[in-house]
Amino acid sequence: MKESTHISHSYLLRLQPQHGSGGAHILTLLEDPMIMDFIAPWIIEKKATDKALMTKKKQWKDETRKVLALTSLGLLLPSSIAVGLLIGYLLDKIFGTRPWLLLIFLFFGTASGLLSLLRGLSRLQDEKEAEDTEAQ
After folding, report:
1. CA 54, CA 44: separation in Å to the nearest integer?
2. pLDDT above 90 (res 80)
3. What is the residue extent of each domain of the chain?
4. What is the pLDDT of residue 3?
5. b/e map of 16-39 (b: 16 or more CB within 10 Å)?
6. The overall pTM is greater than 0.85
């Protein structure tokens, strides 16, 4: 049995030119059953190709998002430590309490970075488990 060649008019309208006088002639030609039998397989193939490209694009976006999330996690701990060191250094310089505020804020920065790192890793693990359950 021949595959169905029913194509929606909205898809056909997207294929035809949006301006000029040629659009009415194309629509008249597309209403002819012989021409539709000739053109329908091409349109069906184009729709399948479009769908495959969208799937690949979505996969690429998902992978890119994961890489960026891991990159941000890698920078989270050192940046938190650096911020703690900077704040401690500046406060020590202002109050003349060298090196106590530096050490205290170094500890706060490290603790903050570790907590944020653990939260981020937990979130990534939850997303991975959700993807695994969707795949099954």
Report:
1. 15
2. yes
3. 9-135
4. 46
5. eeeeeeeeeeeeeebeeeeebeeb
6. no
